[in-house]
Amino acid sequence: MPKRSGGDLTRYSRAIPARLRRAVLERDGGRCRQCGATENLHVDHVLPVSRGGLTVPDNLQTLCAPCNLRKGNRADGG
Prior knowledge:
This protein is of the alpha+beta class and 78 residues long. It has one domain. 29% of the residues lie in helices and 13% in strands. The longest helix has 10 residues, at 18-27.
């Protein structure tokens, strides 16, 4: 397996850098993409890292805590 560079490490990490987290929250209008809530928001991987998902904008979404917990490890977005 080839060695990953610094930028690649973020793509394969569960951790979401603060700048990327802010960008996703802004893109999603500060609202849960499932129910529209504006409080207790999480930035979530659409396809979980445990299932091969990457930490890139197209694989991240804003969910409120209840919607995120309901989703669990599924890849269906909620």
